[in-house]
Predict the structure.
Amino acid sequence: MLLIFLLSVGGHGIELLHDSIGARLSREWDESPGSREADESAKNLVKSHLALMRRYFIGESAIYSALPVGTLMGLLCCWVLGVDFSRPLAVVTICLSCVFGLAGMVVIGFLLSSCIRMGDPVLLLPVLHPDDLRTGLPSASDWGCILTEYRKMFFFDAMLNTALLLAFGILEWFLLGQRGFAVGDPKFVAIVLVISILLNELPYLIGQKRVQELLVFPYRGWEKSKKAKEVGENIPLVPKFEFIAALIGDASAGAWHWR
């Protein structure tokens, strides 16, 4: 039940966050007094980025393939090991162990991909280049804020994948007949916190720090100090969690979405 909850709620949460960010950015450009041509160009680029990220997150549904493939692998292992198929408990245990093990490897792949993207200043997105952020132009600061919104999606995705990986690991641990720890054990809680920081907070912080450095690069002296303060306020190193409120706000429920 926990896995079903994480998969369904987490997937819907990422989709709502994606739509919320698209709606908010669209509304900001529609209301901006700047050049319509420049706005349309940036808007189309953001639309292409959002479409690319949507395909990326949809691709993570590959985790569901672990069920049939893992079951077949489990049955094959039972046949190779000579397990008596008249003992359904042993067969089911081996099949589930293969399913959770395979699902865990798939999750590790997506988790590493999200971490690598979060650590890159422009999230490895096409067209954008890190040099675009150190031009000193107002558009560079705008893209810094937009990339922060993008990075929140990968941060949320990494949090979900970390939770799934821990769930799969715990289930695999018990299926293999291991005991000796409780979920509330302080050592287990400490391990969870360390893993969460390494796989979620640290890549996000590195990516945001690189964006900040690129944005203040063209400035010197006092101007650089003022710009660094401004950048730090608008592009924080640690994610702010007000975006969770956006998941249930009007931006995702009633606002116009880019299609």
Q: What stands out?
A: Confidence is low (pLDDT under 50) at residues 243-259. Residues 63-248 form one domain.
